[in-house]
Amino acid sequence: MSSVTHGQHIEAPVLTARSRDNVAVGDEIVRHRFATRLIHWSVAITFFLCVITGMPIWIPIFGWMAALVGGLEVARLIHPYTGVLFFIASLFQYFHWLPDMHFEKDQKGWFGPKLVSYLRWDQEPATEGGKYNGGQKFFFYMVNLAALGLLLSGIPMWFPLNFPPWLREVCYLVHDITFILFFCSIVAHIYLGTAAEPGTFSAMTRGTVTRRWARFHHPQWFRDVTGGDEAKRT
């Protein structure tokens, strides 16, 4: 009987994370419910589909990637469609997460040296309130702006005969620069969500984080959810 009860206790946070977030369940806190995680992974998957199909078109040295989708011609054919899917997923993400992405007064200083320090993991854990810190909010807006930039610059490349040559040349440059900057930021995002901040990745798999993680990285959010350390255990 005790083993069954223990198993049910382990699964309770995961079950709660299917439909609710910002709630403490035992020793864990639900950070992202299923819908949030589904949207996040939809953006991630469609982005890497764009990478796999776009890199062989961009630079011949990455031609081996084309074999993953059936060859270079197939990559050329499906790349624009994966780009549209990426933009649609990003649009869903934008409106789904927007309510939590307004900058608080104590987060205005994230533009500049503080953002660089955060990406390098030089600074102390964030003390400002909210579910997301200023760096995460900055990244959120950058992702959506980049998705829009990639779409708008990609359309003249998709239908080259419908646009003047000078505009196509500008779009090639914008598309390349946007992708390079975006890809570098994604690498940093993955690093911060795994090696740099252990315990973070489970927020996008199980949907939960530990109370210790929440208290350390987002103390105000921890207090808002739990009412303190031991309160609101379910």
Could you provide a short overview of the structure?
The chain has 234 residues and is mainly α. It contains 8 helices and 3 strands. Strands 1-2-3 form a 3-stranded antiparallel beta sheet, sandwiched between helices.
Structure keywords:
8 helices; mainly alpha; Fumarate Reductase Cytochrome B subunit; 234 residues; disordered N terminus; three-stranded antiparallel β-sheet; 4% strand; elongated
Distance between the termini: 20 Å
Uncertain stretches: 1-9
How would you describe the shape?
elongated
CATH class: Mainly Alpha
Task: Could you tell me the CATH topology label.
Answer: Fumarate Reductase Cytochrome B subunit
Strand arrangement, largest sheet?
A: 1-2-3
Report on the structure:
With 234 residues, the chain is mainly alpha-helical. The chain has a single domain (34-206), classed as Transmembrane di-heme cytochromes, Chain C (Fumarate Reductase Cytochrome B subunit), CATH 1.20.950. It is built from eight helices and three strands, in the order αββαααααβαα. The protein has a three-stranded antiparallel sheet with strand order 1-2-3, sandwiched between helices. The longest helix has 29 residues, at 165-193.
